[in-house]
Structures are given as structure tokens and as C-alpha cells.
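Good morning,

Attaching, inline, the C-alpha cells for the sequence recovery test we're adding to the shared suite. The designed sequence is right after.
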């Protein structure tokens, strides 16, 4: 059996719906989750039953979370005491309507606040194919497992494997010891160098691994495994199209070879 299954055909409408709903879901942890300076609190985690937010505190104690359940095809708001509310992702709700439902569900739990609605506001009715969503979830859980193998073999500081609502991509970061300064509005902020490994599922889906800062003079001279290439148009990093590996028995090893090759090339440039 192939370790990384192909994405479903004609699944873009469902992908766009999941992306729109993920943006709506992200409004709740943005308002209520414990703040993380790298914004990890607004991301989603891949679990066996779907995409899950961080736990968020309730006014009277206990916690709640939101789950995009890709087995039952519902968005669920659930508390640590077992209270449960859900809405179908196949009901055709716009992103605005999904966001309003989530905010109302939070209000029923005694929560309120300033929600960043412009992140998800869109009145377009959404279409959702449960079979396509289930097939995508199979891909996502398979990719996440391969990422975990690579992540767990790295030394130094690494972040969690997260699905980011903004781009609807799955990724994690490894942090180098080199520090860069960034100036904006007269203020200087220090950022650690980093290297991510990610999966982007829109269009011609691809895996990416992008060193920052990108030392083009050194990196572009480094050869990557077959199928992978350096990418410098629009964004700087590396790319491996998912359809070049999906469905092959050795797909997981191809992805690991790619990830290791970029790490081996980039890590020396990200180390102080």
C-alpha cells in the first residue's frame, strides 16, 4: 500500500470550504486561547478525529475546544464537562455564517469579546463533498506522520506540527541559533533563524522546506533529491510537488530524503 495517498480529484471546492471554515474556527482561539508569542495558539492540530484548536478556558472553570471533525463532517464546540454543540460542514453555510455560529456557541458558554471577523468574513455559499474531505484527511494524517518522523530526529528547538488557518497548510519549524534583526516603524525586533517543513494542498499541491534567512549563494549550489528543486520566484525556499511522490510505495522515504537534504544544506547557514 502507498504510504502517502493521492489527493482526491476535483476537490478544490471542498478544500476552499475547509480553508474558509478554518479561518472562522481560528477566531475563537485568537480571542480566548492562552497567547503564544509565535501565534501557535491560533493553529489547529491534526488528531484522529479531525483538526482541533488549543483548549480555551471557560468563565466558571474547565475548558472547551473546537474541532473540525473530518470523519463526521461537522464543526464541534465541546467542553471539558461534556457540553456539545455541532453544525454540519455540508450545510452550505458561508464562512460568515460559520463564524457567527461559532461566536454564538461561545456566547452560550458565557464567553464574549472582540472577535477578528475580517479574517473569515465571506458571504459566498460553500460546497462540501464528504468523500473528498475524508480522502484529504487521509492524506493529511499520512503527511503528518512522515513529518513527525523527520521532526523527532532533529536536535535543537522545534515547534509543533500545526495546520495554519491563514494558508491552510500543515507545517512545523526548526529553529537555528543564528539571530537576525528586523526593523519596522523604528523598532528593532530579533528573530531566530528557522527552517520549516510544510504541505500546501491548493492547486498543484506541494511540500516545501524554506530556510530563513535564505543564503542563495550557498544554497542554490546544493543539489536536492530527484523531483525536488530550489524555488526563488515569489518566495525563496525549496519545493517538491506532491503528485511526484503520492501513491508510490517509497513516498514516505522520498519525502524524508527531501527534508533531510534541505536540512543538511541549510542548517550550517542558520547556526551562529
Amino acid at each position: 500500500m502507498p504510504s502517502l495517498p493521492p489527493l482526491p480529484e476535483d476537490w478544490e471546492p471542498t478544500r476552499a470550504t475547509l480553508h474558509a471554515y478554518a479561518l472562522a474556527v481560528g477566531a475563537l482561539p485568537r480571542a480566548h486561547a492562552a497567547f503564544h508569542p509565535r501565534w501557535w495558539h491560533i493553529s489547529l492540530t491534526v488528531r484522529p478525529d479531525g483538526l482541533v484548536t488549543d483548549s480555551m478556558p471557560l468563565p466558571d472553570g474547565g475548558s472547551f475546544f473546537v474541532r473540525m471533525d473530518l470523519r463526521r463532517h461537522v464543526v464541534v464546540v465541546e467542553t471539558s464537562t461534556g457540553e456539545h454543540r455541532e453544525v454540519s460542514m455540508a450545510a452550505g453555510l458561508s464562512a460568515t455564517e460559520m463564524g457567527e455560529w461559532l461566536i454564538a456557541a461561545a456566547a452560550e458558554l458565557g464567553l464574549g469579546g472582540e472577535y477578528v471577523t475580517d479574517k473569515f468574513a465571506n458571504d459566498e455559499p460553500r460546497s462540501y463533498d464528504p468523500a473528498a474531505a475524508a480522502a484529504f484527511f487521509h492524506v493529511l494524517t499520512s503527511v503528518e506522520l512522515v513529518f513527525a518522523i523527520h521532526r523527532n530526529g532533529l536536535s535543537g528547538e522545534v515547534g509543533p506540527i500545526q495546520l495554519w488557518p491563514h494558508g491552510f497548510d500543515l507545517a512545523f519549524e526548526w529553529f537555528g541559533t543564528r539571530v537576525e534583526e528586523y526593523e519596522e516603524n523604528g523598532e528593532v525586533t530579533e528573530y531566530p533563524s528557522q527552517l520549516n517543513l510544510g504541505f500546501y494542498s491548493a492547486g498543484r499541491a506541494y511540500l516545501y522546506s524554506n530556510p530563513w534567512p535564505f543564503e542563495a549563494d550557498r544554497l542554490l549550489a546544493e543539489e536536492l533529491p530527484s523531483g525536488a528543486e530550489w524555488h526563488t520566484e515569489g518566495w525563496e525556499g525549496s519545493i517538491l510537488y506532491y503528485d511526484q511522490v503520492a501513491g508510490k510505495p517509497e513516498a514516505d522515504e522520498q519525502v524524508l530524503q527531501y527534508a533531510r537534504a534541505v536540512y543538511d544544506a541549510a542548517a550550517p547557514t542558520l547556526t551562529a
